[in-house]
Design brief:
Helix content is about 70%, strand content about 0%. The protein is mainly α. The chain has a domain of about 80 residues. The chain binds zinc ion.
Length: about 120
């Protein structure tokens, strides 16, 4: 169990739960906004409509992908809080800096590991 101030953990948990609700709401809106999913628009044969649909469908797919990724990391962070191993770097098992977690509650790696990770690319 990591040495976490209880208030900080509660704060992060609330923040994550709020983010989770937000992401789920956005995911729903995104799929409703996708013109490729709307029969009325998809059947329209106006010139240029096809590319509009394709273009905006592509954007939707990207956005949906990002939202799903966000959802996955939020869920993972929340389950770590439940298990009591939240805030541990998944690479070196050191505690992740609290400031970093507050800025990015879904962080999986400590600052130095995430820097190593990005510099390798
Ligand atoms: Zn680390």
């Amino acid at each position: 169990m990591l040495n976490f101030p209880k208030n900080t953990l509660e704060f992060i948990k609330k923040h994550l739960l709020r983010q989770q609700r937000e992401v789920e709401k956005n995911l729903k809106e995104v799929s409703e906004d996708d013109p490729a999913m709307s029969p009325a628009l998809a059947e329209s044969s106006e010139p240029g409509t096809d590319s509009y649909i394709a273009d905006s469908h592509a954007k939707t797919v990207v956005l949906e992908h990002q939202l799903k990724n966000a959802k996955t990391s939020i869920t993972a962070a929340l389950s770590k809080i439940r298990k009591g191993n939240y805030g541990k770097c998944e690479k070196c098992s050191q505690a992740i800096e609290i400031g970093r977690l507050l800025a990015m509650p879904t962080a999986q790696y400590c600052v130095s590991c995430s820097q190593k990770k990005t510099s390798k690319r």
